[in-house]
Protein backbone atom coordinates (compact mmCIF):
# COMPACT_ATOMS: atom_id res chain seq x y z
CA UNK A 1 0.00 0.00 0.00
CA UNK A 2 1.24 3.50 -0.77
CA UNK A 3 2.37 5.48 2.29
CA UNK A 4 0.69 8.91 2.47
CA UNK A 5 4.06 10.60 2.88
CA UNK A 6 7.78 9.95 2.87
CA UNK A 7 10.62 12.13 4.18
CA UNK A 8 13.45 12.81 1.75
CA UNK A 9 16.96 12.74 3.26
CA UNK A 10 18.25 15.81 1.43
CA UNK A 11 18.95 19.43 2.26
CA UNK A 12 17.60 20.43 -1.17
CA UNK A 13 13.92 21.51 -1.10
CA UNK A 14 13.74 21.44 -4.91
CA UNK A 15 14.53 17.76 -4.83
CA UNK A 16 11.55 16.96 -2.58
CA UNK A 17 9.24 18.86 -4.97
CA UNK A 18 10.76 17.00 -7.93
CA UNK A 19 10.28 13.60 -6.29
CA UNK A 20 6.75 14.50 -5.18
CA UNK A 21 5.83 15.17 -8.81
CA UNK A 22 7.34 11.80 -9.77
CA UNK A 23 5.81 9.74 -6.93
CA UNK A 24 2.18 10.46 -7.85
CA UNK A 25 0.08 10.59 -4.72
CA UNK A 26 2.86 10.31 -2.13
CA UNK A 27 3.67 13.55 -0.28
CA UNK A 28 7.44 14.04 -0.17
CA UNK A 29 8.46 15.96 2.96
CA UNK A 30 11.78 17.75 3.22
CA UNK A 31 14.06 16.67 6.06
CA UNK A 32 13.14 18.49 9.35
CA UNK A 33 15.34 21.47 10.15
CA UNK A 34 18.20 20.58 12.49
CA UNK A 35 18.64 17.14 10.91
CA UNK A 36 22.10 16.38 9.52
CA UNK A 37 23.22 14.34 6.54
CA UNK A 38 26.24 12.04 6.92
CA UNK A 39 29.33 12.20 4.74
CA UNK A 40 28.88 10.24 1.53
CA UNK A 41 31.62 7.72 2.26
CA UNK A 42 30.04 4.78 0.44
CA UNK A 43 31.68 3.01 -2.48
CA UNK A 44 28.60 3.22 -4.72
CA UNK A 45 25.37 5.15 -5.34
CA UNK A 46 23.30 2.58 -3.48
CA UNK A 47 25.54 2.65 -0.40
CA UNK A 48 25.53 6.46 -0.27
CA UNK A 49 21.74 6.54 -0.58
CA UNK A 50 21.45 3.96 2.22
CA UNK A 51 23.83 5.94 4.49
CA UNK A 52 21.70 9.08 4.04
CA UNK A 53 18.36 7.32 4.56
CA UNK A 54 19.61 5.41 7.64
CA UNK A 55 21.13 8.56 9.20
CA UNK A 56 17.87 10.49 8.87
CA UNK A 57 15.81 7.55 10.16
CA UNK A 58 18.19 7.29 13.18
CA UNK A 59 17.59 11.00 13.92
CA UNK A 60 13.81 10.44 13.89
CA UNK A 61 14.27 7.52 16.30
CA UNK A 62 16.58 9.55 18.58
CA UNK A 63 14.04 12.41 18.70
CA UNK A 64 10.96 10.20 18.79
CA UNK A 65 9.26 12.26 21.51
CA UNK A 66 9.36 15.34 19.25
CA UNK A 67 7.57 13.35 16.53
CA UNK A 68 4.82 11.66 18.65
CA UNK A 69 6.95 8.51 18.79
CA UNK A 70 6.38 8.03 15.07
CA UNK A 71 9.11 7.07 12.62
CA UNK A 72 8.09 8.00 9.06
CA UNK A 73 9.03 6.39 5.77
CA UNK A 74 12.43 7.86 4.79
CA UNK A 75 14.05 7.85 1.36
CA UNK A 76 17.36 9.07 -0.07
CA UNK A 77 18.78 9.14 -3.56
CA UNK A 78 22.26 9.34 -5.00
CA UNK A 79 23.01 10.00 -8.63
CA UNK A 80 25.74 10.82 -11.07
CA UNK A 81 27.17 10.14 -14.49
CA UNK A 82 29.25 7.12 -15.57
CA UNK A 83 31.41 7.46 -18.68
CA UNK A 84 32.46 4.26 -20.46
CA UNK A 85 35.83 5.50 -21.77
CA UNK A 86 36.72 6.63 -18.22
CA UNK A 87 35.94 3.23 -16.67
CA UNK A 88 32.74 4.57 -15.09
CA UNK A 89 34.21 7.82 -13.74
CA UNK A 90 33.23 10.30 -12.41
CA UNK A 91 30.42 8.12 -10.93
CA UNK A 92 29.79 8.87 -7.26
CA UNK A 93 32.28 11.76 -7.52
CA UNK A 94 30.24 13.53 -10.25
CA UNK A 95 29.46 16.63 -8.15
CA UNK A 96 33.14 17.13 -7.22
CA UNK A 97 34.85 15.73 -10.32
CA UNK A 98 36.93 18.90 -10.86
CA UNK A 99 37.55 19.42 -7.11
CA UNK A 100 35.79 19.95 -3.78
CA UNK A 101 34.19 23.30 -4.73
CA UNK A 102 33.89 22.64 -8.46
CA UNK A 103 31.09 24.35 -10.41
CA UNK A 104 29.04 22.58 -13.09
CA UNK A 105 31.11 24.42 -15.72
CA UNK A 106 34.38 23.18 -14.14
CA UNK A 107 33.10 19.59 -14.10
CA UNK A 108 31.88 19.69 -17.70
CA UNK A 109 35.19 21.21 -18.87
CA UNK A 110 37.16 18.51 -17.10
CA UNK A 111 34.98 15.81 -18.66
CA UNK A 112 35.38 17.21 -22.18
CA UNK A 113 39.17 17.39 -21.68
CA UNK A 114 39.29 13.80 -20.43
CA UNK A 115 37.42 12.67 -23.56
CA UNK A 116 39.40 14.78 -26.02
CA UNK A 117 40.31 12.67 -29.05
CA UNK A 118 38.21 9.72 -27.84
CA UNK A 119 35.60 8.25 -30.17
CA UNK A 120 33.86 6.23 -27.47
CA UNK A 121 31.48 8.86 -26.01
CA UNK A 122 29.08 6.41 -24.28
CA UNK A 123 27.79 7.50 -20.87
CA UNK A 124 24.83 7.00 -18.58
CA UNK A 125 23.13 8.93 -15.80
CA UNK A 126 22.38 6.67 -12.84
CA UNK A 127 20.07 7.20 -9.87
CA UNK A 128 19.71 4.84 -6.93
CA UNK A 129 17.08 5.26 -4.23
CA UNK A 130 16.87 3.59 -0.83
CA UNK A 131 13.57 3.85 1.07
CA UNK A 132 13.10 2.59 4.63
CA UNK A 133 9.68 1.79 6.09
CA UNK A 134 8.69 2.76 9.66
CA UNK A 135 9.39 -0.87 10.62
CA UNK A 136 12.87 -0.82 9.06
CA UNK A 137 12.26 -2.69 5.79
CA UNK A 138 14.57 -1.41 3.04
CA UNK A 139 13.57 -0.95 -0.59
CA UNK A 140 16.17 -0.37 -3.31
CA UNK A 141 15.16 1.28 -6.57
CA UNK A 142 17.24 2.37 -9.52
CA UNK A 143 17.01 4.07 -12.88
CA UNK A 144 19.42 4.90 -15.69
CA UNK A 145 19.41 7.08 -18.78
CA UNK A 146 21.80 5.83 -21.47
CA UNK A 147 23.41 8.24 -23.90
CA UNK A 148 26.63 9.88 -24.98
CA UNK A 149 28.80 12.93 -24.36
CA UNK A 150 28.64 15.75 -26.93
CA UNK A 151 31.83 17.41 -28.26
CA UNK A 152 30.84 20.73 -26.67
CA UNK A 153 28.11 22.09 -24.37
CA UNK A 154 24.74 23.03 -25.94
CA UNK A 155 21.52 24.43 -24.50
CA UNK A 156 20.56 26.47 -21.48
CA UNK A 157 18.24 24.32 -19.36
CA UNK A 158 19.12 21.99 -16.50
CA UNK A 159 22.21 21.55 -14.38
CA UNK A 160 25.32 19.42 -13.95
CA UNK A 161 26.24 17.49 -17.07
CA UNK A 162 22.96 18.23 -18.92
CA UNK A 163 24.62 20.53 -21.53
CA UNK A 164 26.88 17.71 -22.79
CA UNK A 165 24.63 14.67 -22.36
CA UNK A 166 22.75 13.40 -25.43
CA UNK A 167 20.21 10.70 -24.51
CA UNK A 168 20.19 7.61 -26.72
CA UNK A 169 17.80 8.12 -29.64
CA UNK A 170 18.06 11.94 -29.44
CA UNK A 171 20.24 14.44 -31.27
CA UNK A 172 19.70 17.17 -28.65
CA UNK A 173 21.48 17.49 -25.32
CA UNK A 174 19.36 17.30 -22.15
CA UNK A 175 19.84 21.07 -21.83
CA UNK A 176 18.05 21.49 -25.16
CA UNK A 177 15.04 19.39 -24.08
CA UNK A 178 12.00 20.75 -22.24
CA UNK A 179 11.74 20.16 -18.50
CA UNK A 180 8.74 17.89 -19.17
CA UNK A 181 10.72 15.76 -21.60
CA UNK A 182 13.66 15.46 -19.20
CA UNK A 183 11.31 14.50 -16.35
CA UNK A 184 9.77 11.82 -18.55
CA UNK A 185 13.03 10.05 -19.42
CA UNK A 186 15.46 10.93 -16.62
CA UNK A 187 17.30 8.44 -14.43
CA UNK A 188 15.53 10.01 -11.43
CA UNK A 189 12.10 9.57 -13.04
CA UNK A 190 12.90 5.94 -13.79
CA UNK A 191 14.19 5.26 -10.27
CA UNK A 192 11.11 6.98 -8.79
CA UNK A 193 8.85 4.83 -10.99
CA UNK A 194 10.70 1.71 -9.80
CA UNK A 195 10.18 2.83 -6.18
CA UNK A 196 6.51 3.58 -6.82
CA UNK A 197 6.01 0.08 -8.26
CA UNK A 198 7.63 -1.44 -5.19
CA UNK A 199 5.61 0.71 -2.77
CA UNK A 200 2.47 -0.45 -4.56
CA UNK A 201 3.67 -4.01 -4.06
CA UNK A 202 4.65 -4.52 -7.69
CA UNK A 203 7.90 -5.87 -9.06
CA UNK A 204 11.17 -3.90 -9.10
CA UNK A 205 12.63 -3.19 -12.56
P1 LIG B 1 23.06 14.32 -6.65
O1 LIG B 1 23.00 12.88 -6.34
O2 LIG B 1 21.75 14.89 -7.03
O3 LIG B 1 23.80 15.10 -5.61
O4 LIG B 1 23.93 14.47 -7.99
C1 LIG B 1 25.33 14.33 -8.01
C2 LIG B 1 25.89 14.98 -9.26
O5 LIG B 1 25.60 14.18 -10.40
C3 LIG B 1 25.32 16.35 -9.58
O6 LIG B 1 26.00 17.36 -8.91
C4 LIG B 1 25.54 16.42 -11.09
O7 LIG B 1 26.88 16.79 -11.37
C5 LIG B 1 25.35 14.98 -11.52
N1 LIG B 1 23.94 14.77 -11.91
C6 LIG B 1 23.00 14.03 -11.27
N2 LIG B 1 21.82 14.09 -11.91
C7 LIG B 1 22.00 14.89 -12.98
C8 LIG B 1 21.12 15.35 -14.01
O8 LIG B 1 19.91 15.06 -14.07
N3 LIG B 1 21.68 16.16 -14.93
C9 LIG B 1 22.99 16.53 -14.91
N4 LIG B 1 23.83 16.15 -13.96
C10 LIG B 1 23.35 15.32 -13.00
Ligands in the model, by name, code or SMILES, are:
inosinic acid
Radius of gyration: 18 Å
CATH fold field value? Maf protein
Gross geometry: globular
Label the CATH architecture: Alpha-Beta Complex
CATH class label: Alpha Beta
Order of helices and strands: EHEHEEHEEEHH
Number of DSSP helical runs: 5
Average of pLDDT: 95
- Helix/strand structural class: alpha/beta
The total strand number stands at: 7
For the record, the count of structural domains works out to: 1
Give the biggest beta sheet.
7 strands, mixed
Give the amount of beta strand, in percent: 15-25%
Helix content: 25-40%
Distance between the termini: 18 Å
Low confidence ranges: none
Describe the structure.
The protein has 205 residues and is of the alpha/beta class. The chain has one domain: Alpha-Beta Complex (Maf protein), CATH 3.90.950. The protein has helices spanning 13-22, 45-62, 104-114, 179-185, 187-199; strands at residues 5-8, 27-30, 74-83, 90-91, 122-132, 138-149, 165-167. Strands 1, 2, 3, 4, 5, 6 and 7 form a seven-stranded mixed sheet that branches. It is globular. The model has no long low-confidence stretch (mean pLDDT 95). The structure holds inosinic acid (IMP). Residues 78-81, 94-95, 107, 125, 158-162, 186 line the site of inosinic acid.
